[in-house]
Design a protein that fits this description.
The complex is a heterodimer. Chain A is an alpha/beta fold. Chain A has five helices and six strands. In chain B, 11% of the residues lie in helices and 54% in strands. Classes of the chains: A alpha/beta, B mainly beta. At the A-B interface, helix 4, strand 4 and helix 5 of A face helix 1, strand 1, strand 2, strand 4 and strand 5 of B.
Chain lengths: 138, 383
């Protein structure tokens, strides 16, 4: 019984650390456009290139392998990071497109998004500050 | 794929600079590689160039792509692939200038891949698809690349994201086939591919045609013989000389909740040539389980050729009989009725690399001495 509770606890902890890390999709504070879940997905897959007001979308990604990136790929894009990597490989090696720049940390994303009105990125929801506008939480 | 160190450095210190300003000017390097080992499961069996001696060279390749963004939508890209099958002799598979006229319209000028199949554009990037290589039965045209112009238009049709790809150009790169190395001439190579994607569904269709010449020496005596006996039509049909070839492809992909269904059908028609018309298809189902993908593929090839010597009588003259028999032998050799079953496993064990295992069971319904079983393993990566 004791063993059972212990393993259950570990499972719950493992599980919760995955499912409770909330991702915030952020844009520049001056950007008042709305984005549906599908718009967000298409933007990060390089398919949607303009906001509803006609402004160009500048997508910022996080480095492959980061925990936030994995969560974002899983929750917002509904794919594993490997699948996303395979997706971009197809475009890169066939002259059809190139992946968004990959930044190292949430801090870099926030800094760029707060200074560029075209930018869209995502960060761990806990790191959001008032220099950016959150359009969606996953 | 690589993060630009310059971008990172600048983005963290010069916050006023936009990324688009910073990202220009330098050259990006990307690459991919496959190391493939293969062996047939019994002595005497041969399949796709493999036999019962394990081989790590034939299917292996290394590729490097360099690309640079010039200003105003102009870009330049070159992709060099060194293949074990060519003794690691590096070749330019792609070398083109691209121009983005708008967000949705891109022009490619130079050497590029013809979008014959669903996986043509990234045929050698094994990391990008489930198998070690796409099924040979379908993916078996004599050439993959051409020199010319490509126009890519991405649009939307209702809820679908669409890509329309038009190409025009030619290919005259030497090929080895039927025991000869020849310089073919595929002129006025024209084609259109269209694909539509919505969430888990992708549909694709393509059509290509070319004016084809393949000067095989072994066909020359037959051509001359038929011409001398007055059978001009047969004389023309026994060679491929300025004949129109057409190719149709239909493809689909479903990727739903970790279940995958891929299918592709192709139809190659080579009228007025001694070469067979080919109808091929495969259907693949797979399931993703964590970092693994298990898949199974069934495919079939049906090649046929009508007897274009029918107008020549038999038993009238020995020369004619000889010509007819020799030509009919070639016609017979163009027929095939083959099927295969592929069972495979892909394991994404690393951020940028995957390990793949594949077992292929091939059977030739016209000649069962060609039946073979092949086991392959591959380490594939992108960088």
């Amino acid at each position: 019984m004791k063993y059972f509770t212990k393993t259950t606890l570990i499972f719950i902890m493992l599980f919760s650390s995955y499912s409770f890390a909330e991702i915030a999709i952020v844009v520049n504070a001056s950007n008042k456009t709305t984005l549906s879940d599908n718009d967000i997905k298409r933007a990060f897959m390089g398919k949607l290139k303009k906001y509803s007001n006609g402004d160009k979308i500048l997508v910022l990604n996080l480095k492959f392998g980061s925990v936030t990136r994995n969560e974002f790929d899983k929750k917002a894009l509904k794919k594993s990071s490997s699948q996303i990597k395979a997706y971009w490989s197809k475009l890169v090696f066939s002259g059809k497109g190139k992946p968004p720049p990959e930044l190292v940390s949430d801090k870099d994303v926030l800094a760029l998004v707060s200074s560029d009105s075209n930018a869209i990125g995502y960060v761990d929801a806990e790191n959001v500050d008032d220099t950016v506008r959150v359009v969606k939480r996953f | 794929m690589k993060i630009k160190s310059s971008l990172l450095a600048v983005s963290s210190c010069l916050l006023l600079n936009t990324v688009s300003n910073v990202a220009m000017a330098d050259v990006n390097f990307n690459g991919f590689a496959s190391i493939v080992g293969g062996v047939t499961t019994a002595s005497g069996e041969q399949l796709y160039g493999y036999n019962d001696n394990i081989d790590f060279k034939k299917g292996s390749l290394f590729a490097l792509q360099a690309s640079s963004d010039l200003e105003n939508g102009l870009g330049v890209t070159a992709q060099i692939i060194a293949r074990g099958a060519n003794d690691w002799d590096p070749k330019f598979e792609w070398a083109y200038l691209s121009y983005d006229a708008t967000d949705n319209l891109r022009f490619l000028v130079g050497r590029q891949r013809a979008p014959f199949y669903m996986y043509s554009d990234f045929l050698d990037v094994s990391y990008a698809y489930p198998w070690i290589t796409p099924p040979n039965g379908v993916y078996n045209l004599l050439f993959d690349s051409f020199d010319g112009i490509g126009i890519l238009y991405s649009g939307q049709l209702g809820e679908f994201d669409t890509t329309t790809h038009f190409i025009y150009g030619k290919n005259d790169s030497a090929v080895s086939a039927l025991g000869e190395t020849i310089t073919p001439d595929f002129k006025d190579f024209t084609g259109l591919s269209f694909s539509a994607n919505r969430e888990w569904l992708t549909l694709r269709a393509a059509y290509f045609q070319a004016n084809m010449t393949m000067p095989f020496q072994f066909l020359q005596p037959l051509q001359n013989g038929w011409a001398q006996t007055g059978f001009t039509d047969i004389s023309n049909d026994v060679v491929m000389n300025g004949d129109k070839g057409t190719f149709i492809e239909l493809g689909m992909q479903i990727d739903y909740n970790d279940y995958i269904l891929n299918a592709e059908y192709t139809n190659l028609t080579l009228d007025h040539t001694p070469f067979g018309d080919q109808k091929s298809y495969y259907v693949m189902v797979g399931k993703r389980i964590d970092n693994f993908l298990v898949h199974i593929t069934y495919g079939k090839d049906d090649d046929s050729k009508n007897d274009f010597t029918a107008s020549a009588p038999f038993g009238v003259a020995p020369t004619l009989d000889f010509l007819k028999a020799s030509t009919q032998q070639i016609i017979a050799s163009q027929k095939s009725d083959e099927k295969y079953l592929i069972v495979g496993l892909r394991w994404d064990f690393h951020d940028s690399a995957a390990l793949k295992f594949e077992y292929t069971s091939f059977s030739d319904n016209l000649n069962n001495t060609n039946d073979a079983n092949l086991f392959r393993v591959a380490l594939v990566t992108v960088f």
